[in-house]
Amino acid sequence: MTEHQEIALDWMSGQQEQPPSAELRPEVPHPARMYDYYLGGKDNFPADRAAAEQVLSISPLVRISAQANRAFLQRAVRTLAEQGVRQFLDIGTGIPSAGNTHEIAQAVAPSARVVYLDNDPIVLVHGRALLAGAQQGSVNVLQADLRKPEAILADPAVRDLIDLDRPVALQLFAILHFIDDADDPYAIVRTLVDALPSGSYLALSHATGDFAAPEDAAKGPAVYKSATAQLSMRTREQVLRFFDGLDLLEPGLVTAPLWRPDQAPRDTDQQVAIWAGVARKP
Length: 282
What we know:
single chain, alpha/beta, globular, 38% helix, disordered N terminus
C-alpha cells in the first residue's frame, strides 16, 4: 500500500473529520490525479499515469496545456485580488501544487478568504494536509459536487467564509469539461452566478478540440471513458455561452497562455487546447 493510500484510508476510516462519501478507487484513473501527473506531481497512482500517458501519446501538447492552465489560474487570481476581490470560491480545485489560489490571493491581500471544493478524496487529503498547522483561518477545503450547485451555496462551511452579499470570485478552472451535457453545465454555472452579487467575477478555463485534427478529436475523450469522470470538450462558441450576461475582461476568451501573459509568447500559445476567460457580473 502506498503512503497516499494509507493517508486516504485513515481519513475515510474516521480519523479525520468529514470523511468523503466517494471511494478512493486507486485502480480507476481520476482526472485530478491525471492532471497532477501532467504537472509533474507525485500524487497519482499507476492507473492515473497509464491513462495520462495514453492521452500524451495522442497529444503531447496536453502537458503544456495543463501547465498553461495552472499559470492562467495564478494570473487570474492575482488580477482579481488586485482589483479588490477578497473572496474566492474555487470549485474543482484539484490536487494542491505550488501557487494555490490562497497563496496568490493572500500575497496581494492577507485578508482574502478562500474556499476550495472538490469531490476526490485524495484532493481533500492533500488540501487539508497543506493547510494543517498553517493557522489559515480564512481558508477551508471541503467536499462538494459541482453538479449540485444549490448544495454548495447552502453549505454552512461555505457560508462561514463566503459572504454572498459581497463580491466573490467564482473559479471553475478545468472542471466544466468533466460535466456532461446531460447534467446541463450551463444551468449549473447560471445557478452559481445568479447567487453572487454585482461586482463578482467568473473565471474559468475549459478544454477544447478546436485545434485537433478531426481524426484525433475523439481520442482524448475516449481515454477518459475509463476514468471516474468523462471528458466533454467544447468549442469556443460553446465555452463563450458560460459568460452570458457577464462582461468579459480584456482580452476576452482566448487560449490560456494568451490571457494577460507575463512572459514572451511561444509558438504553441495559440494552439493550447484550453479556452480561458474572466468576466465581471454587472
